[in-house]
Amino acid sequence: MRVHVDPTKCQGYGQCHEVCPDVFGLDEWGYAEVSEAAAQAAEREPAILAAAAACPEGAIIVETSDATGVEEN
Amino acid sequence: MSVTLPPTSAPAPFENVGVAPSLEARLVGQLRGREDLEAYRAAGGYAEGAERGGALIAAVEAAHLRGRGGAAFPTSVKWRSVAERPGPRYLLANGGEREPLSFKDRYLLGQRPHLVLEGLLLAAEAIGAEAAYVFVTESALERSVVTAVAELGSTAVPVLVHRADSGYAGAEETAAIRAIGGGPALPVAKPPRPYEQGLFGSPTLVQNVETLANVPTIAHNGWEAFQAVGTDGSPGTFLLSASGECGAPGLYEVPLGIELSAAFDAVAGGFAGTPKAFLVGGFFGGLLPAADHSVTLDYDELATRDSGLGCGAVHVVGPDRCPIGVAAEVMGYLAGESTGQCGPCVKGTAGMAETLTALIRGSADDEEIARLERWSTALPGRGACGLLDGAALLARSVLRNFGEEVARHLSHGCATCGTNDRAGGAIAKEVRSR
Predict the structure, then answer these.
(1) Is pLDDT of B430 > 60?
(2) In chain A, domain spans
(3) Which of B16, B24, B96, B387 gives 20 to 30 Å between its CA and that of B169?
(4) What is the rounded distance in angstroms from the CA atom of residue B391 to the CA atom of residue B386?
């Protein structure tokens, strides 16, 4: 599972951190940061999906497929 | 296609344009001034017998052509990623050159539009594109490309030119896609990437115009000829935008893998005095120390130094300037160009600019430097585009390569910075005034 935070949408509400603090940290300004390593643990999937649903801005992108492709950076 | 030419003058002439000695020019033309269709054809352009379609993709792969816009990503991988997806597919030639130290795309679109268009048409055909767009941010370049398209008459793939007024981040690939789709020229978060969902929600190949300008060489002469110069990992030539304290600032075609000092000696009149530092890759490759004057200008070597050739711009920081002051200036520029969309970018670039400004004013402390160090590694990847990544890399390069200077600024201040009249975007103004 790959998890991203859309930085253009995140407003720093912190709901994701409330629901799933292991995967969603908050930086010093309150914006969400993803721990990619923590997001790999299968048992966290329900909490990650709950965190995504809790975000009022819909800023959390969850990729559940095995899609791979061009990664430029 | 009917076109309306914008009311503007022709592209500004480039005073210093050249090619490294003994190098056969591929990107730099023989004419001073704009090369029209007749001149381009006379020089062999649009000739029959070019490699096409799947064979061209294979040739581009064998040539190991890498993107010239900044990321140096393997071109053929992008082509295949779009070509293998269901249509409609599109091609976007990105000529939105908003990097203040780079002027190669302006040269190509303004002076050699047909070289770009031939590469564009070959690429569009190879990926099965419905249409190809050329994205520009200056009316003079729009006029040049529109004129070139009109000279061609009908083309196998329709070519449309789109101009958008944009800031620094407005030429990022997703910003260009958004602008062509009718939205603002502002980046969006990835995924999806353009090869998945680009123009009009369809798979889109986005290529820098210099990348496309290399395609005719491969299509006509083969991948072996393309690799005759350059390095194994970075074959071919590139357009060096040379600026700062050197004998002849200008635009020069040089082989990839040439040493930095050798490149300036060969084409740009050498360094004017002993350099203190180099801005490499425009504002995106950080600040290299003077000791790196012999670094080879290729993608892989610079990556090992946490830098990057990027768009191919190299700015020499001369003996009368302070590298920390230059870094503060560049960081201030980047902070001003943040689009305001991403919180970490707004806060992070402003914070890093404040810290560097405090450093040159002699008011920074160890705690602020520690915070700058933390930001320099924590902020990459936190913005929708690469602006924040470039800013963080600049901060890393200052701390890593100029530690003694930072310490001296903390303890004694800096006489050079105190009298530095280059603050406030002077680098950008200097280059843009050219």
Answers:
(1) no
(2) 2-72
(3) B16
(4) 9
- Give Cβ neighbours of residue B285 (< 8 Å, ≥ 6 apart): B279, B302, B307, B308, B309, B310, B390, B393
d(CA B233, CA B343): 37
- CA–CA distance, B298 with B21 (Å, rounded to integer): 18
What mean pLDDT do residues B239-258 have? 96
**A43 and B CB contact within 8 Å:** no
* pLDDT tens, residue by residue, B289-343: 999 999 999 999 999 999 999 999 999 999 999 999 999 999 999 999 999 999 9
Cβ–Cβ contacts within 10 Å for residue B432, how many?
11
Give this complex's ipTM: 0.88
Q: How far is B383 from chain A (nearest CA, A)?
A: 6
DSSP string covering B286-341: -EEEGGGTT-B-SHHHHHHTT---TTSEEEEE-TTS-HHHHHHHHHHHHHHH--S-
Please give the full DSSP string across B121-164, using - where no structure is assigned. Answer: HHHHHHHTEEEEEEEES-HHHHHHHHHHHHHH-S-SS-EEEEE-
Radius of gyration, CA atoms only, chain A: 12
d(CA B389, CA B13): 33
Does the structure show a pLDDT above 60 at B432? no
The whole-number average pLDDT for the span B391-412 is: 95
With CA atoms as reference, the chain B residue closest to A63 would be B191
Q: List the single residue in A with minimal CA-CA distance to B189.
A: A6
Assess contact for A71 and B71: CB atoms under 8 A.
no
Contacts of B193 in chain A (CB under 8 A): 69-70, 72
Residues of B in contact with A14 (CB under 8 A): none
Cα(A66)–Cα(A45) distance, integer angstroms? 15
Residue in the structure block whose two tokens are 């940290």: A25
d(CA B418, CA B357): 11
3-class secondary-structure state, position B240:
strand
What's the CA angle centered on B200, arms A67 and B219, to 5 degrees?
75
The two three-digit tokens of residue B318, written as one number = 């001369």
Q: Whole-angstrom Cα distance, residue B399 to residue B405?
A: 9
CA distances to A36, A44, B192, B350, B400 from A40, in Å = 7, 8, 20, 33, 32
Give the predicted TM-score (pTM) of the model: 0.92
Q: In chain A, which residue's Cα lies nearest the Cα of B205? A: A70
Q: What is the distance in angstroms between the CA of the first residue and the CA of the last residue of chain B? A: 34
pLDDT score recorded for residue B411: 87
Whole-angstrom CA distances from B114 to B4, B120, B140, B354 are: 19, 9, 15, 45
Residue B225 vs residues B51, B179, B222, B299: alpha-carbon distances, Å: 13, 37, 6, 20
CB B55 within 8 A of CB B215: no
